[in-house]
Structures
1.
Amino acid sequence: MSFKPRKRFGQNFLIDDSIIEKIMTAIDPKRTDSIIEIGPGLSALTAPLLDRVDCLIAIEIDKDLSRTLKNRHSSKKLMLIEKDVMDQDFSIFGNNIRIVGNLPYNISSPLLFHLMSVADIVRDQHFMLQKEVVDRMISKPSSKNYGRLSVMLQERYRIEKLFDVPSESFNPKPKVSSSMVRLIPLSDARNKPNDYLLFKKVVLEAFSKRRKTLRNSLKDLSKDIPWCKLKISPESRAEDISVEQFINLSDHFLKNTPIL
């Protein structure tokens, strides 16, 4: 590989053909699918995707990689957007989009939160991420990996860990293991908070003081919380309560009345 990976972009290029084929099987792209690839890099996923779809949109921040991609693939098939994905407005791509990518691990959590804002136009997302991040995404209450990321993503998506990927599958070889994950947005009919911004605030407050009991960590929001009716122990900590219980908590703060 003649291209030298740049640390500032968190570049680790997938080189394992067997893993690439497993990813293609998981995505199962169709000709007319509207797919956006984040970080196409050296085309490990881009090339097989272009073999399977009529047109592919790819977002790449590295100008040198962009030149390589333009030389390698027809502009009639590959629409290349040269910018930081964190600045990309995904709503311009229409409805029923599919998003894929071997995501830079240094921006994975902020990017996942960024994409939540357009979940209503997304069919699914398939990402390669640091294994530790995926374990947090799918973690359940009272487990060591359960945290703010778990709650916020599980409120919005059905999340499935697909398979682990050894570090030997990349060049350069990362110091961490990786996993492939699928996120499918939940329907608008799901049980969801009445005020999403308040829900975010409650979750953030609870986990920013996660060593404290909920009685203490949430006291700045309210000192009069009907713990029994909410079916939550005030001695619980943030990692002990479910997504649904966080929704009930935030709805209580919104109404400022006991939950019936």
Note: The two ends are 63 Å apart (CA to CA).
2.
Amino acid sequence: MVTLRAASFLDKGGTGKTTSIAHLGVALTELGHDVLLIDLAGKQGDLGKHLGEWEQVKEDIANDEDWPNISTVFDDTWNKIVDTVGEQEAVDKLIIETEEGPDLIPAHPGLDSLDAELGNVDDATERYSRLDAFLSQYIDGRGYDVVLVDLPGLTNNVSYNGLWAVDGVITPVEMGPFESEQADALRDDLETFRDRFDVEVVLAMVLPNKMDTRTKLASEYLEEFEDQYPDAIAPEPIPVSQDIRNAANSGQTAFALEEPSTTAERAREAFLADAEALVDRLGEKA
């Protein structure tokens, strides 16, 4: 069985990358897939917060029960950890089973220094392929259908590791000129990345996010994105919804809401349609 991999990335914060990864992950489990989410977006642990797991992670950190963690898989000591406790236990300690379905490898404060540590690795291939090596050796054989990685909102050694490791990139964008420019820049960056390192990673999904369908301007920008990215645009834009924000603040996705608003219900349906399309696109590449 081939484990499909994708990462959310745009060299800009605040576009909804973490929210999108959380909801796509839950949507994929709703569709019957086994999913692993990995939070590399920063030590603040927003993906864990979104899935209601961050308080337990913080408690483990406070009690020195946070070893190994996501930052250690990039370290030269990872193989020593595996030799000491065994592969099964080492990987099991990384993974949290969330209540909404996907498994999660949460963020960790060790991510704060990871970019600089990777920068000390002289060989570029070795520097950027560490996540891919970890996933290939320790995750691909664990029965996951899809692995989704939440990357930092900037281009650095950590995000390059994510791009190296995945089959496709998910780019959540809001409907505006700056986001259009950023998406164009990302397409160029991916082409440069492919040419420089001979690593095939595609723009799998441009995901229109926080879409206010009541405004003519948003609809015009959506049409522009559809024209520019006919093969990558998501089949359904994600509507703006206060319920999604409220759910995130309470450690949930919109899928966990017992009485979702109309916009939240539409968002859930959109994420399900987009998750199904994402699997099809990643499967074509695989």
Note: The first strand starts at residue 4 and ends at 8.
3.
Amino acid sequence: MVKVSVVGAKGRMGSHVVAAVNGADDMELALTLDAGDDLTRIDRSNTDVVVEFTVPSVSLGNVLTLIAQGVDVVVGTTGWTDEKLAQVREAIANGPRPSDQKVFIAPNFAISAVLADYFATKAARYFESAEVIELHHPNKVDAPSGTAIHTAHGIAQARKDAGLGEVPDNTETDGGSRGQVVDGIHVHAVRLRGLNAHEEVLFGNAGEQLTIRADSFDRGSFMPGVLLAVRKLAGDAPTGLTVGLDNFLDL
């Protein structure tokens, strides 16, 4: 049995993780912690893998503390930058388990979203234009989403590898209506009551368009990915920091 602790256990996502762990035949729930609780209660004597689902403003500090405690960590909180990831790698290198610590961060745990991201990187080299639209509920605190940023980076790298130039855009605007530019790719964020988590990737050539869309209608859609990540960290996942569920899907 894999002993799993959950940080952010009372949150919208954390409560689903608690239910998913309780429903898994190969896992047992160890500790459930939330805002204000002492993370140093979690250590290798009571926990094999921690699942951290909180908010971007506290997630980095939580992860660094958990690394110092020597436990492996699955992170679902978004808002990660290259600078924050570098701090995680440094913490692992200087932590109590530099040779076998495992930390996993996923921009998205929905299988549909991970596959859409993967398909987008495969399609990007064949199209002159590309844009990303992400749509979420209005309670989401970051924009654009970590998933959309990850998708844009993947598209940009695929275009670079294919020798493509800049995406054509002669629009003149100073009002921000063209979205945030991530690696040369315009990313648009929609916040609308009634939505959960959705992403569209639009590709265009003269006379044709390809749309790749992933829809998660309920937070339960993320749980198979979370449990997969927990099992991988308890098993054969590589040591160090891994980013992206695609690394565990045999793509």
Note: Residues 111-217 form a domain with the Dihydrodipicolinate Reductase; domain 2 fold (CATH 3.30.360.10).
4.
Amino acid sequence: MSKTLIIGASGQIGKMTTELLLKNEQNVTALVRDKTKLSDLESPFLNIVEQDLEGDFSEAIKGCDQVIFAAGSGGSTGDDKTLLIDLWAAAKAANYAKNNNVKHFIMVSSIGADNPDAIESDLKPYLVAKHMADEHLASSGLNYTIVRPGTLTDESASMKVTTQRPDDQDKAKISRENVANALLHIATNSFEKNRIFELFDGDTAIKSAVK
């Protein structure tokens, strides 16, 4: 059976995705900086690896067929951590995946990462980091899916999304649970080509919207 490495498995989306994969009896290696944050998870399908993303975490990827990069520096950190985690750690993860012949790399990116210059706000350094990480993955030679969610919310999963950006900016949002369920669908299905798409709450079932 295949094994998925989830980088950032103790973050909100990362943990939700870990739980969903385990419920579907998928083998998961959860990479976290502090394993106590996953102390409530028990499953014969789970292996927890404690490692700092600012160091060498290449060992965690060995034996894994798939990677989900869901790590992030967090809103309370400075631009230095954004550079080290959202860009450098993501680039290292892609390099490690390439060296270990990983079959599929799923990147959790962000709306606006396609063109950081289009947004003048404090988020620009974060979007630049995401943009560069996405570009590195796309040029790596790996099979990849890059998901760019809209503004994240804590709403319950509606299980309905859209990949079309709403005209109304206030509607360009998505629940973290919907993102996690979309990642589950992507991780447990085969796709014929590399893809980059945005993701928002919508009216279409996840399995149909994320073909």
Note: Residues 3-209 form a domain with the Rossmann fold fold (CATH 3.40.50.720).
